[in-house]
Amino acid sequence: MEAARPPSTAGRFVVVGGGIAGVTCAEQLAIQFPSEDILLITARPVIKAVTNFKQCILTGDGSQHVYEKLCLCAGAKPKLICEGNPYVLGIRDTDSAQEFQKQLTKAKRIMIIGNGGIALELVYEIEGCEVIWAIKDKAIGNTFFDAGAAEFLTSKLIAEKPEARMAHKRTRYTTEGRKKEAQTKSGAGNLGSALGPDWHEGLNLKGTKEFSHKVHIETMCEVKKIYLQEEFGISKKKSLPFPRDHCNQSVTTDKEAWPVYVELTNEKTYGCDFIVSATGVIPNTEPFLCGNNFDLGEDGGLKVDAHMHTSVSDVYAAGDICTASWPPSPFWQQMRLWTQARQMGWYAAKCMAAASLGESIDLDFSFELFAHVTKFFNYKVVLLGKYNAQGLGSDHELMLRCTKGQEYVKVVMQNGQMMGAVLIGETDLEETFENLILNQTDLSSYGEDLLDPNIDLEDYFD
After folding, report:
1. Could you give the CA distance from residue 280 to residue 137 in angstroms, rounded to a whole number?
2. Which residues contact 204 (CB under 8 A, 6 or more apart)?
């Protein structure tokens, strides 16, 4: 593994993983223990073993690193729809993002499979290339939005993109100045640092054509079969042309020969230059399981308690690799997002420090309320609490406010109290709603006036 390691192979604290969780954990440990050398091991070459009975990490180059406290932040790996196919690309780390950009510059049409955050960002950012977007749900962004919010955002896909990008009001995560390293045979399948919120910044996501968006969405379907060009010819099947847009223009025809073809479960078949598999991730636990007795969650992650401690002594975990196994707050749920990776990395370092000093520590306040801020289709998006009524059953009601092209506000109410919210656009309501959810203020007397744009909620509740 690449590692900026001290001369000694022993370290009081060792962190494995160069993504947001790992870097945040290492930074916080360095603040807590400025005189200590914090060993941060990143993702190449791969870790061969963690031998806890000796409290030692053995890396692929034969190095051994003895630790007092270890935090595993190795992230997750993409669930590819097809392994070993050269035309199926998963985007998870910086190397795969660079490879995607390289392939896109030569592409006239691609297909994106999946309905999560990566897919949502891609379909909006890509220009000069036809995009067939296949999702298994009725509406886009099912992980984050209801059908109303999806409809609000979909209108952006048929519009040009002349507007300025939304300004960043937080720390940015980039890889400026980084040169892509040639992958050796031994490292070709290894995972690099996971993508953060700004992964497409600096990438030229443009195909071969001169147009902005050209996206067609196929809903309620999955991949049935993938054919290479020769296989498709033998099959005698027919592929569909790209559906004509509102200007009745189509850049390509069904007579074009494509490198790869995708047959969907709705019996439609499209040809394309390559396929992006964006169908989620699985925790990257495999390098650490052999010879250790880690308890695993139902999703395959390393179970951690309220102090981010795994079932193995002196081994902690944070970010996508772990599964939170403590009783959650009524307004919090684990999702494998960069915001939670950062929170978990920071909190894991605090727990490691407290344990090392023999001190106690309470569960961090960031786990009281689920809060995620991101950007989709150049809109600011804020998700709070049980924003999709997760776990609330049918005993809840929704309140909506929508101004086309400007904002979409949805709140989830139960027994007169706010349980969650979705805010799209510059609503300036996030702090007020955060307080209303945490304080469980009785809002029943306000009824539908709660979202009246003529009422300044901040005056009432801040």
Report:
1. 14
2. 101, 105
